[in-house]
């Protein structure tokens, strides 16, 4: 038995949800470029869950179901009020999502219909939790959804209390489309491993959120913005990045386990970053990002991933830095739940082996002789 570090190149399941072949990402066979230009996030949710694009009636029904499911139990809201004021936003989300299960009478029911209902609830409630957490820690009252047709619009309203403008809604919606699913990434794998024991969907999503939080995965978008803020000015980019590379530090938002010639989503986020930063007077972040991109690509041959330009996109939308990864979670919930449903449909316990590298032939030594 020989282990492959990080399971690189190991095919661990079959799946008909998304695929990455020769650098092309598709959801259910539709190219991400096509979806980014044309689809709403709700159409993508439907596509991931049910395997086809919705017709108008199906889309309207999903939008209405999401709106009807967006409120969270009072008990969960009260718990969020008790979180320490410096709670990490992903830790808050992980905890609140776990708590949702306590107040859902069908949390442990395993029929497909019940799991689809819970997928809708989770997709609708996660934005509400994030917005409520952000408002509560700022000393403001949490807000209920306004019932806009778009989840992006409802989230922006619940976060700010203001009617969101079309540019912000369109940008967030596209970011949600781009982040929705990505084959067997770490958090999706964690979700599948969890539910393959036939535990409940809330446990699967709680595992996934805890996994997305790390800086090598979803947490990288916040780390990118922290780096841009630390660099501060365009003139500081070259010495700062050179020093990082000399010190063998990882430049956040670059590199990918699967894409070696570039992430197909990055160009969409780059374009959005250019437009949004310019129109909001934050062009500096884009100019710095472009320089970092050119430098890291030329010096290391590493290309930006989905997290790199999303940092300046969310900053232009006036979203606080520590909500970037929770927003990624809003989007990836659609993929996680699709994978969980697929896992339940064709389940087998996921239990690989480990190559043992520890000592052998040891004998027990009584404690007084150690
Ligand atoms: C949504 C997402 O999860 S996308 C990924 C988000 N994460 C990041 O942006 C964090 C920065 N990137 C990374 O840490 C990595 O590229 C990962 C985690 C994405 C992929 O990791 P792996 O496939 O395991 O690649 P690994 O870390 O082994 O890197 C291979 C080589 O490239 C280097 N490398 C990879 N990424 C970077 C980076 N961002 N900056 C500098 N060097 C890097 C590694 O140091 C390593 O060099 P070595 O062979 O000299 O030791
Ligand atoms: O696929 C991965 O390894 C990381 C990920 O989630 C993504 O790129 O969206």
N→C terminal distance: 33 Å
Number of domains as seen in the coordinates? 2
Q: Which CATH-level-2 architecture of the largest domain? A: Orthogonal Bundle
The number of helical elements comes to 16
* Shape designation: globular
Q: Might you state the CATH topology name of the largest domain?
A: Citrate Synthase, domain 1
Helix content: 55-70%
Low-confidence stretches: none
Catalytic activity: oxaloacetate + acetyl-CoA + H2O = citrate + CoA + H(+)
Keywords: Acyltransferase, Transferase, Tricarboxylic acid cycle
GO cellular component, one term: cytosol
Pathway: Carbohydrate metabolism; tricarboxylic acid cycle; isocitrate from oxaloacetate: step 1/2
List the SSEs and their pairings.
Elements lengths: L17 E4 L2 E4 L2 E2 H7 L2 H10 L5 H13 L5 H9 L6 H12 L11 H26 L13 H10 L5 H14 L6 H10 L5 H12 L7 H12 L5 H10 L19 H14 L3 H18 L5 H11 L7 H22 L25
Antiparallel strand pairs: 1-2, 2-3
Bound molecules: acetyl coenzyme *A and oxaloacetate ion.
GO biological process, one term: tricarboxylic acid cycle
GO molecular function: citrate synthase activity
InterPro entries: 2-MeCitrate/Citrate_synth_II, Citrate_synth-like_lrg_a-sub, Citrate_synth-like_sm_a-sub, Citrate_synthase, Citrate_synthase_AS, Citrate_synthase_bac-typ, Citrate_synthase_sf
Walk me through the structure.
- It contains 16 helices and three strands.
- It folds into two domains: 18-213 and 328-345, Citrate Synthase, domain 1; 220-316, Orthogonal Bundle (Cytochrome p450-Terp, domain 2).
- It has a three-stranded antiparallel beta sheet.
- The chain has 370 residues and is an all-alpha fold.
- Helices cover 57% and strands 3% of the residues.
- It binds acetyl coenzyme *A and oxaloacetate ion.
- Acetyl coenzyme *A binds at residues 6, 216-218, 220, 250-257, 300, 302, 305-307.
């Amino acid at each position: 038995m020989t282990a492959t570090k990080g399971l690189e190149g190991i095919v661990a399941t079959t799946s008909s949800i998304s695929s990455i072949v020769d650098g092309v990402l598709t959801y259910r066979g539709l190219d991400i470029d096509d979806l980014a230009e044309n689809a709403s996030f709700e159409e993508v949710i439907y596509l991931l869950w049910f395997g086809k694009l919705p017709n108008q009636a199906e889309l309207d029904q999903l939008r209405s179901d999401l709106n009807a499911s967006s409120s969270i139990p009072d008990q969960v809201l009260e718990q969020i009020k008790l979180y320490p004021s410096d709670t990490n936003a992903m830790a808050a989300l992980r905890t609140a999502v776990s708590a949702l299960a306590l107040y859902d009478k069908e949390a442990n029911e395993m029929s497909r219909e019940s799991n689809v209902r819970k997928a809708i609830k989770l997709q609708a409630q996660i934005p509400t939790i994030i917005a409520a957490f952000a408002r509560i820690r700022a000393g403001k009252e949490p807000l209920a959804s306004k019932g806009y047709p778009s989840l992006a619009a409802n989230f922006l309203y619940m976060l700010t209390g203001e009617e969101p403008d079309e540019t912000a809604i369109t940008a967030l919606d596209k970011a949600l489309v781009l982040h929705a699913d990505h084959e067997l990434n770490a958090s999706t794998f964690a979700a599948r491993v969890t539910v393959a024991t036939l535990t409940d969907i809330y446990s699967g999503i709680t595992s996934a959120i805890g996994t997305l939080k790390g800086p090598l995965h979803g947490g990288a978008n916040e780390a990118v913005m922290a780096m841009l803020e630390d660099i501060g000015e365009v003139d500081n980019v070259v010495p700062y990045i050179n020093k990082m590379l000399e010190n063998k530090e990882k430049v956040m938002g670059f590199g990918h386990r699967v894409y070696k010639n570039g992430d197909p989503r990055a160009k969409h986020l780059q374009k959005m970053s250019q437009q949004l930063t310019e129109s909001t007077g934050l062009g500096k972040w884009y100019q710095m990002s472009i320089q970092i991109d050119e430098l890291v690509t030329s010096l290391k041959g590493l290309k930006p991933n989905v997290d790199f330009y999303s940092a300046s996109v969310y900053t232009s939308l006036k979203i606080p830095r520590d909500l970037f990864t929770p927003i990624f979670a809003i989007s990836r919930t659609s993929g996680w739940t699709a994978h969980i449903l697929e896992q339940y449909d064709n389940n087998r316990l996921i239990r690989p082996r480990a190559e043992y590298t520890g000592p052998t032939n040891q004998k027990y030594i009584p404690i007084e002789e150690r």
